[in-house]
């Protein structure tokens, strides 16, 4: 059996990865550098986790644990 595309994440996981709420995620998703979804399903979009992690490394400042969005 072939190897898949890698680990996938949906909006809920990305909110946790970014440490933001839904409305802020909608804004971030509009950023030109934010990756396109890997696939759009009837239940929503999914992304390759590696693509989202790369975006976070390259475009997000580190957050302190006590910061709120």
Explained architecture:
This protein has one domain. It is 39% helix and 16% strand. The chain contains three helices and three strands. A hairpin with a 2-residue loop joins strand 2 and strand 3. It starts with 7 loop residues before the first strand and ends in a 10-residue tail after the last helix. The model has no long low-confidence stretch (mean pLDDT 89).
Task: Quickly describe the structure.
With 69 residues, the protein is α+β, with helices and mostly antiparallel strands. 39% of the residues lie in helices and 16% in strands.
General form: globular
Please tally the helical runs, counting DSSP H or I stretches of 4 or more residues: 3
Strand content: 15-25%
Q: Class by helix and strand content? A: alpha+beta
Number of β-strand runs: 3
Distance N terminus to C terminus? 42 Å
User: For the residues shown, what is the average pLDDT?
Assistant: 89
- Strand adjacency order, main sheet: 1-3-2
Task: Tell me the Rg in angstroms.
Answer: 13 Å
Low-confidence stretches: none
User: Level of helix content?
Assistant: 25-40%
**H/E order of the elements?**
EHHEEH
């Amino acid at each position: 059996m072939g190897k898949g595309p890698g680990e996938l994440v949906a909006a809920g996981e990305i909110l946790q990865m970014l440490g933001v709420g839904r409305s802020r995620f909608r804004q971030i998703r509009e950023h030109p550098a934010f990756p396109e979804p890997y696939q759009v399903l009837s239940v929503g979009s999914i992304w390759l986790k590696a693509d989202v992690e790369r975006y976070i490394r390259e475009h997000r400042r580190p957050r302190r644990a006590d910061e709120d969005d």
